[in-house]
């Protein structure tokens, strides 16, 4: 049997401080530090506790070249090698190791930059709800807790007099730019028309043209920029209230301009799912549609292989798309929203996604405003 180390893992030291009661009563220093090592392992999607011996052994086994297990056991002992195989930090080439080996090889094949794979894997939420720790403190509560925020503007040291600029001239985008705002008070009795939904989806995510740049080299021209012109972000639409479209989960096909149904839902099921996906942010869950932005990482990493900027480019793509969506919603007279505070793992399970291949980036949505401000909004023209 051959073994090698898994492709990506990072080790973090942890320290737990406890009170040494014996020293306390003896009048000495009462704090005691308990040190431990934890491996963060993207292909396992979990943390793994390690002892010092296991850590040292992992540092001697290649992640690329296969080694005879018998040879490794002679050098390090059968118990520690067996334990690391069981943990999934060492990978075997035998049938029993197939599930773990396939996960490790999938991570390798996606061309992740290791640090990006780590950030992506361990920044995902699962089952974050109001009762499990989701907090939404007000601005004043944050000030009371942490003090005032850093100032809204900065004044770097200048080498000369400031240059006064002329007033900004009016332009075609002014109405959309100056009237856009994040909606948090949606009318739960109102729906979207199919015509509005169609324009939102086609102009945000749809291919405005398909261009051939070589054999097997079609690229899409869209209204937002994308690193390398690759446009890896897919749109999954949770419909709650759209005229003539049944509640459910759909995938928007960016070339065919159709919604492909993935899962049909009753009205109350769609509402409950929306609340779960946005981690109990009811002010967003009440919008008639939520659009889940999911990046197919290999579409981007095909070009930017193991690249230190590849994952950042994907996050920029999501930002471009959300702003385009905002402006189109504003054009239609609708407030919009975007949030990254979502239950990524729950979304993955709902859509049948694998986090090594498809990265949940954000949820966006829009809908008619209720006219109330039960939740604070910064609307155009507000002076207070």
From TrEMBL:
PANTHER family reported in the protein's UniProt record: NITROREDUCTASE MJ1384-RELATED
Top-rank taxon, per record: Bacteria
GO MF, any single term: oxidoreductase activity
Coiled coil segments of this chain: none
Classification via Gene3D superfamilies: NADH Oxidase
NCBIfam families noted in UniProt: antibiot_sagB, SagB_rel_DH_2
Pfam families: Nitroreductase
Species of provenance: Duganella callida
CDD domains: McbC_SagB-like_oxidoreductase
Protein name: Putative peptide maturation dehydrogenase
Residues of the Nitroreductase domain: 178-367
